[in-house]
Design a protein that fits this description.
The complex is a heterodimer of chains A (541) and B (57).
Chain A lengths: L1 H23 L3 H5 L7 H12 L2 H14 L4 H30 L4 H8 L3 H34 L3 H17 L7 H25 L3 H10 L6 H6 L13 H17 L4 H9 L3 H37 L3 H4 L7 H9 L2 H39 L8 H27 L6 H26 L5 H22 L9 H7 L9 E2 L2 E2 L5 H19 L5 H7 L6
Antiparallel strand pairs in A: 1-2
Chain B lengths: L6 H23 L11 H16 L1
Classes of the chains: A mainly alpha (541), B mainly alpha (57).
Chain lengths: 541, 57
């Protein structure tokens, strides 16, 4: 009963802060310079709460329970690429160019930079159609924890949580009010800090915990060993299926993809100045370390705890369900009051990320695809309706995917949350990153080059996902199976250390997109000088 | 290092901490740099459009 009361109080506080923030911004100037009187801590926490979700904590934390501490390479990329490079290198330019061009969404920025309605419309459609995969990953993470914490069915937890999120979004959560995000970020920070401290104390200290984990390497089950697993404090053997999955999909897909995430790029445009981006680097770095770093270390170390208490490794203790490793660990190892704090942590992480995802999906279908892409900015009276129907459709699709993925693949020892997230991040990197980077840093990339690169990046990603990439014994390439009755059209083929059916689409589609973008740009006429000068005004290039 | 024998994992652990320190140092050094002194016309126009968009949502 006490748990329910605290959750209700939490929602009441979140609602109050949202209402206060909404009332607090009365004028345009207030809105624009909201940062003026806001403590930098509040501002940076709100960034962090959007970056990190239940996908990172429960999904990738669970994946660390299987793969081990190799996932810390992803934490390094999250901090160095996702925070440092993103804010220092991409952030300032995105903000400046966005304001010069009067762009308000990521597809719009690209469309205006290259003077192409097609780019805006197509990008909007890709985001709208594929982001539900990422939203589903976030929902699965939250629902798994709720199901474990309250000992209820996964389906009940999923639908219940999705309903709460939908109500929150409909009641105005979409505005992403800074104080709400900041509170959520703070809860997440405290929750994860306590989780790390208690875990290391339980296992006898930092060095002792790591040494015990290393000693478990002979307990790796034979099927994992056959795939290349060498223990939880070692990387998988080079060139094995496990190595390809960890390095090409989980580490690189997410680590690089973060640069071209539409809902994060929008954040750069809404800050008041470059100074806010600089300040956010400080707290953002600490925040991401505290979130993903802690989740991956604790996920790995859960093996020591479960082995000491039950004689099983984590994936066995979670009955083969990767996304249950973190919830089961918290239930078994942490004091009960922490379960409640962690529940709030996860609710906070899911809410803040999902509201930014719905914001991105709503604007993608309403403004980018319908209003600008289809109607060319004329006669846009129906765009509000399209946006709302779009958001509703996105919610339904995300919940369905959360149900379907878990039903079909959840109990096979496959990290569906991590893969769902990685697929979306990789797709964004291949489709958007060449033209985004080219648009911000060079004057020479042409409209034709950008369009060609975007289409090649998207098509080759989808082709590779549908026909080539498979997870041995767990998930075939679905289109290859439907069309040719095979798990992959490149089933088992190998060139040197490259196992083609294990290579992530990012490694094929991204280089192809880069090459095509550059080649076509050099074969076509540069964009008008006055347009380029306008885009790069006050930007040193 | 930290009880982790594998060099590649220990390196990842160390790089996580070092990259966080980089972020902290960068944030401190540039804390007051790049501030906007006043809103120009372009920012005002951008802002009006953004408010419209928020209303639609």
């Amino acid at each position: 009963m006490g748990t329910y009361i605290i959750v209700v109080i939490y929602f009441a506080v979140i609602g109050f802060l949202g209402w206060k923030g909404y009332r607090g911004t009365k004028t345009d100037l207030d809105y624009m310079v909201a940062g003026r009187n806001v403590h930098p801590y509040v501002m940076a926490m709100s960034y962090g709460a959007t970056f990190i979700s239940t996908s990172a904590i429960v999904g990738f934390g669970g994946a660390a329970g299987v793969f081990g501490m190799g996932l810390l390479w992803l934490t390094f990329l999250n901090i160095f690429v996702g925070i440092f490079l993103a804010f220092v290198v991409f952030g300032g330019r995105t903000r400046q160019m966005g304001h010069h061009l009067d762009a308000h969404t990521f597809p719009e920025l690209m469309g205006l930079r290259y003077r192409s309605r097609f780019i805006q419309g197509f990008s909007g459609l890709v985001i709208f159609l594929f982001m539900p995969l990422y939203t589903a990953a976030v929902l699965i993470g939250a629902a798994q924890f709720i199901a474990t914490k309250f000992a209820i069915n996964y389906e009940v937890a999923l639908f219940g949580f999705a309903t709460i999120v939908a109500i929150y979004v409909i009641m105005g959560g979409l505005k992403g009010v800074m104080y709400t995000d900041a509170l959520q970020g703070s809860i997440m920070l405290i929750g994860m800090a306590i989780l790390l401290i208690i875990t290391y104390r339980l296992l006898g200290g930092v060095t002792e915990a790591h040494t015990s984990l290393a000693e478990l390497s002979d307990k790796v089950p034979p099927p994992l060993k056959a795939g290349g697993h060498q223990g939880w404090t070692s990387m998988p053997a080079f060139g094995t299926p496990f190595w390809w999955m960890l390095v090409s999909t989980i580490i690189m897909g997410v680590g690089i993809g973060v640069l071209a995430m539409p809902q994060l790029a929008v954040r750069y445009m809404t800050v008041r100045s470059k100074r806010e981006l600089n300040r956010a680097v400080l707290v953002g770095g600490i925040f991401v370390l505290a979130m993903t770093g802690v989740a991956f270390v604790v996920g790995s170390l859960s093996n020591v705890y479960f082995f000491r208490t039950t004689g099983k490794i984590s994936i066995a203790a979670a009955q083969g369900d990767v996304s249950r490793i973190i919830p089961e660990y918290i239930k078994a190892a942490m004091p009960s009051w922490f379960g409640l704090l962690f529940l709030l942590t996860l609710l906070a992480a899911a809410m803040s990320t999902i509201s930014s995802q719905f914001h991105a999906m709503g604007t993608s279908i309403g403004r980018d695809f319908y209003e600008k892409g289809l109607r060319g900015g004329k006669n846009t009276s129906g765009s509000i309706g399209v946006t709302r129907i779009g958001i509703l459709a996105a919610i339904i699709l995300s919940v369905f995917l959360g149900y379907w993925l878990q039903q079909n693949y959840g109990k096979q020892g496959m990290s569906i949350i991590a893969r769902g997230t990685a697929i979306f991040f990789g797709l964004c990197a291949s489709t958007f990153l060449p033209m985004y980077f080219g648009g911000l840093f060079t004057r020479r990339i042409t409209r034709a080059g950008a369009i060609a690169g975007m289409l090649v990046g998207f098509a080759s990603s989808v082709f590779w996902l549908g026909f080539v990439l498979k997870i041995k014994g767990k998930m075939p390439a679905l289109l290859a199976q439907a069309c040719f009755g095979k798990d992959s059209i490149l089933d088992g083929s190998q060139t040197g250390f490259i196992l083609w059916d294990q290579v992530d689409p990012l490694f094929i589609a991204f280089p192809l997109a880069v090459i095509v973008t550059i080649l076509v740009s050099f074969l076509t006429k540069p964009m008008p000088k006055e347009h380029i000068d306008h885009c790069f005004q006050d930007i040193n290039n | 290092m930290f009880g982790i024998e594998s060099t590649s994992i220990a390196l990842a652990y160390l790089l996580c901490i070092l990259s966080t320190i980089l972020c902290v140092v960068y944030g401190i050094v540039t804390w007051n740099k790049g501030g906007l002194k006043k809103l120009d016309e372009e920012d005002r126009l951008w802002l009006e459009e953004e408010k419209e968009l928020e209303k639609e949502l």
